[in-house]
Amino acid sequence: MSHENLQRDEAAARSALISTTSYDVSLDVRQAPDPDVAGYPTRSVITFTAEAGASTFLDFIGSEVHSVVLNGEGLGVDEVVDGARIRLDNLQAENQVTVTGTALYSHSGEGMHRFVDPADGQCYLYTQYEPADARRVFANFEQPDLKATYTFHVMAPAGWHVASNGAEANRTLLTDDPGTARWDFAATEPMSTYITTVLAGPYFKAEDHWQATIDDGTSLDVPLALYCRASMAGSFDTGELFRLTKNGLDFFNRLFDYPYPWGKYDQAFVPEYNLGAMENPGLVTFTESYVFTSRATDAQYQGRANTLLHEMAHMWFGDLVTMQWWDDLWLKESFADYMGTLGVDRATGWDTAWVNFANKRKAWAYVQDQLPTTHPIVADIPDLEAAKQNFDGITYAKGASVLKQLVAYVGFEAFIAGSREYFRKHAYGNTSLADLLAALGTASGRDLAGWAQQWLQTSGISTLSLDFAPIDTAKDDGGVLGRVAIVQEAADPVTGREELRPHRLRVGSYNFDGGGALVRTGSFETDVAGARTELPQLARQPRPALLLVNDDDLTYAKVRLDPASEATVRAALDRIADPMARALCWTALWNSARDGESPATGYVDAVAAFGPAETGIGVLLNILENAGTAVERYTPVQERDAVRASFLATVEDELDRATPGSDQQLAWARTLATFSRHDRSMVPRLRGLLDGTAPVEGLSVDAELRWHIWHALAANGQATAAELDAELARDTTASGRAGHATALAARPDPEVKAAAWNAAVHGNELSNQLLSATISGFTTAPENLLEPYVEPYFESLRSVWDGRSIEIASRIVRGLFPLAQDLAEGTEPVEHPVIGRTDAWLESNADAPRALRRIIIEQRSHLLRALKAQTAGSSAR
Questions:
Q1: Is 427 exposed, middle or buried (0-12, 13-18, 19+ CB in 10 A)?
Q2: Which DSSP string do the residues of 117-135 spell out, in sequence order?
Q3: What are the E-state strand segments in 271-381?
């Protein structure tokens, strides 16, 4: 038995028996550059206390355990090792256990990931553990509430940079192995296993430091470092990253009134990373896609800043104070998501952080919260597989949105005062919801139990709309409002129960000014509770051109525009002066299309009409992406080619009209390539951009854009393998290799699709990045090429899940689900063959792992929503 999926009750039982004190971990990665060496020696020395006579277990996932020594006595490895667990019996009050073994290098981004740079052949290592992959590197008690101090020792090639959570204490050249060295790192403060880390390789390193004076008058001096692969150093904007880092440390140290607790602050940008970033204390790791080797928009730079500050907030929320178990994952992720946006808003030069949050981040939450697998922010996480699946839009974006609502409810000062007390009381400890509510309740003077029950412990999303009625029996003459109320609808998608929540929100009135702009002419805040909330402030007032519920985006809810306001928006969206109000109207239109309340073609028409005037590049990128979904998945197949062609004509015109060198120009160019994957008419134009025979003034057709174009050409059968190989030869980067894999798999040839399928499903050679790239190319295809793989998909699910790591299995299961389906005229969405096949699989696999079933249920829901949207489009004709 593997025992890899640790259960919550097992973790609770273990922490009731033992307390961990310290780890001393040694890793030997001297042979990492040799691809034939699959693993590396690892040694853990763990001190811990226990209930005398008790038994417990350690966690380790490696190729072999060599020895286990408990309190000076060697244990029989065959007797105590059972899959991923090492049994420890007859414990004393004070214990020390030493485990040696061989751990395996990873190409899935879990544990110790090994990457060979295609640009120069150099080998790079880094670790990633959340939620429970430290056990792939060293033996430990793998759960967040068993904190300890850590001392790491690493043997590696002497020319490498090696880093860990603690500061480097000593480096020694090994006389018995020339060209290698041993790094010894200082002991850390107490932390959880999942945020320990090691980085090793010939990384480029830049250094700086940050200073501050804390309240007692002492000086805080924090060394700073930045790492990236050597081949990317020319694109590494270290000056800007150090500036953001110092601004963030200034901001959070003042805000939290608790000095940065982890000594140094390193940030490493690493290849093939599964996440945006990870908050390892003293050594934060980021995806290297944040090192912009091609032209990037201002929205991409702002997104990077948001991630940087999100991870920095974790140094307090999550690292200093950590959740007891993964049920309270939101205690760190929701707070960091909120604080990251707050930090961008208050500690950088950007003024659109909350606009982008409303338009992009909350949209993620709205999607997740309408799935049948949605869950409360405080979730029920019975095991590690469930924890892995809960790094989702609810835990991050909904949680952050609800915190924004809480700030509006209790006031910002009370919210921060409660947070400060929370850090002081629970530093280096573990907490649950009750601990946070106690701190915030004391600071605000409010009993937050009811608020928490309604917002944190229920599922689903409220929908808010306006209801109009005449006053008394007098008729509304059309120019004056009668009675106005906010109507709230909210059903839990899981239980079906009505879950009406309290909202503190603002209602805004907008009218046209003398210059034709749509500007706010009035607003007020109000509390919404129950199914209906009267708004006496609007009674007998002149009807504005636009009434916007949740103006300024204070609460978390979908908003339906009333008919008159929707007509205004569809006629004059580009004339709304306020960027936040404009973004909220875009969101309302998108939710209406997604929910089948209006035809998807209406959303596409709005993007074509008003997208060119959108000044917010983050909003523009988002609505263009939404337009792609609206065309390819929500528009009835009978209309799709015509709708796509019309929109492509707009895209081409806007590319030619955009200001040379602008972010808008780049956005239209990327969109041209994306939409052209399903339209051959733009092939000559794309060829002209690639070979320079038809350039666009100011547009840099750099590596990233070139691969977008090659993807489109390949999908249309207009790129040969030889051409794609030649492009790879000129772009030998990791991103170029991924672009090449996508384009190769996108070619509309049955043999190509078969090879891509076999590599993804049956092979084991693709890294996490190349697997996703191959799946992306495979699924870029007409339905007739993908139909033969529907049945093999369902037949392979159990073997894929059982035979791969959860990260790789999740990518395969989610990525290859047959989503690209169309509704035949005269049929109902639930009658679609793929819906039927999915239902049959779910029924016959009731015993499948919960995490696997969750992915299938979610993908079914996405498909059913698309089919229903196609029905809405058909009925609108």
A1: middle
A2: -TTT--EEEEEE-TTT-GG
A3: 277-278, 283-287, 321-323
Q: Is 366 exposed, middle or buried (0-12, 13-18, 19+ CB in 10 A)?
A: buried
Residue identified by tokens 């991923």 is 84
Give the C-alpha separation, 415 to 403, whole Å: 9
The reply to whether 311 belongs to the active site is yes
Tokens describing residue 582: 């404009």
Question: 596: which residues sit within 8 A by CB, 6+ positions away?
Answer: 865, 868, 869, 871, 872
Q: Across the strands, what pairs with 576?
A: 518
Place of tokens 């309408």: 370
**pLDDT value for 853:** 96
Is-contact 587 551, C-beta < 8 A?
Answer: no
pLDDT tens-digit series, residues 387-442: 988 889 999 999 999 999 899 888 999 999 999 999 999 999 999 999 999 999 99
Angle at 29 between CA 24 and CA 35, to 5 degrees: 150
Rama region for 37: left / alpha / beta (φ>0; ψ in -120 to 50; rest): beta
Alpha-carbon separation of residue 424 from 248, 420, 447, 748 (angstroms): 20, 6, 21, 60
Asked if 260 and 268 count as a contact pair (C-beta separation under 8 A), the reply is no
SS3 765: coil
Q: Distance between CA atoms of 688 and 691, rounded to whole angstroms?
A: 5
What is the rounded distance in angstroms from the CA atom of residue 297 to the CA atom of residue 318? Answer: 31
The residues pairing with 124 across neighbouring beta strands, listed in sequence order, are 115
Q: How far is CA 278 from CA 94, 284, 332, 398, in A?
A: 33, 6, 12, 20
Reply yes or no: is the peptide bond before residue 131 cis, omega within 30 of 0. Answer: yes
The DSSP H or E segment spanning 168 is: strand 168-173
How does strand 277-278 pair with strand 283-287?
antiparallel
What is d(CA 564, CA 577) in angstroms, rounded to the nearest whole number?
19
Which of 198, 176, 171 minimizes the C-alpha distance to 23?
198
Residue among 90, 172, 159, 85 nearest 122 (CA): 159
**Structure confidence by residue, pLDDT tens digits, 168-216:** 999 999 999 999 999 999 999 999 999 999 999 999 999 999 999 877 7
Q: Tally Cβ neighbours within 10 Å of residue 726.
A: 10
pLDDT digits (tens, 9 = 90+) for 280-324: 999 999 999 999 999 999 999 999 999 999 999 999 999 999 999
Q: How far apart, in Å, are the Cα atoms of 765 and each of 275, 655, 728, 759, 769?
A: 21, 40, 19, 8, 11
Helix pair 703-715, 721-730: axis angle to 10 deg: 170
Q: Distance of CA 399 to CAs 333, 455, 723, 752, 773, Å?
A: 8, 9, 47, 43, 30
Give the per-residue SS3 of 769-784. HHHHHHHHHHHCCCHH
pLDDT in tens, 587-642: 999 999 999 999 999 999 999 999 999 999 999 999 999 999 999 999 999 999 99
The owner of tokens 């209309």 is 639
Instruction: Select which of 4, 189, 288, 311 is catalytic.
Output: 311
Residue 225, classed as helix, strand or coil, is strand
Average of per-residue pLDDT across 559-582: 97
For residue 451, is pLDDT > 50?
Answer: yes
Q: Residue type for 299, please? A: A
Residue among 426, 424, 425, 371 at smallest CA distance from 394 = 371
612 CA to centre of own chain: 28
**DSSP assignment of 474-499, as one string?**
PPP-SSB--EEEEEEE-B-TTT--B-
pLDDT digits (tens, 9 = 90+) for 24-46: 999 999 999 999 999 999 999 99
Residue 413 CB coordination number (10 Å): 11
Q: DSSP labels for 503-525?
A: EEEEEEEEEE-TTS-EEEEEEEE
**What pLDDT sits at residue 142?**
97
